[in-house]
Amino acid sequence: MNEVIARNHVKVLGTGERTLMLAHGFGCDQSMWRYILPAFEPFYRIVLFDYVGSGGSDLSAYTSERYGSLRGYVQDVLDIVEALELRDVIFIGHSVSSMIGMLASIERPEYFAQLIMIGPSPRYLNEDGYVGGFDKSDVTELLDMMEMNFAGWASFLAPIAMKNPEMPKLTQELERSFISADPAITREFAEVTFFSDCRQALSQATVPSLILQCSDDSIVPMAAGEYLHSHLDNSTFRLMEAKGHYPHISHPEETIALINDYLKSEAAYTG
């Protein structure tokens, strides 16, 4: 147990009966949840962690063999759940973590009660009529930029992804998060993320889910969120007023309200 807790920099807060597990997205770490934490900490037990390769995790535990696909990140989630002996977890995942949580729930559905997906996408690449938002050449250019000029990549992507120019401090915070990570690991995580395709797995998911789709998300277009909803049984779709790909940072009040509404609704339990 202690090995997993240290490896993934796991923190447990709050004393509620139900457990929220918060899973950060690509290029981030558990600190990105601090804007919504105060709303949930008095009522839930909260599990925070960093994927291996991110934040305060043990970088020496990173191998390309394990983390060269989403499977390694799914295993991180399952390892933490098992180490803490958790059941009926409410899993809140941002971006690629939405699919990581879904894949974990397919493998061990008894561990999870609900999935809450913030800015999820089952596939980031455009393909055969499917709109993921990126052409393969776009992603290849992004990966090349990361390799040649990591700082330049961070300063290029952060304002596009945050998409709230009236709040420049948030863009700067995201850029700092990008730049603080190991460049080689971050690039590999980007490759795994952008080339992942979870569409075939959607029909296997049984845990009720909430999809929070931002109204103007430059990473995940509306069509990808709608595709996910239409192919994911027991899913609830909510279109947010928030713009950008990080509503839990830029619009925490709306994010909190929609999560609370869902958890109090019958849909969270019946789908």
TrEMBL record:
Pfam families: Abhydrolase_6 (PF12697). InterPro entries: AB_hydrolase_1, AB_hydrolase_fold. Gene3D superfamilies: alpha/beta hydrolase. GO terms for molecular function: hydrolase activity. Keywords: Hydrolase. Residues 22-257 form the AB hydrolase-1 domain. It comes from the Bacteria. Belongs to the AB hydrolase superfamily. PANTHER family: ESTERASE-RELATED. This is Alpha/beta hydrolase.
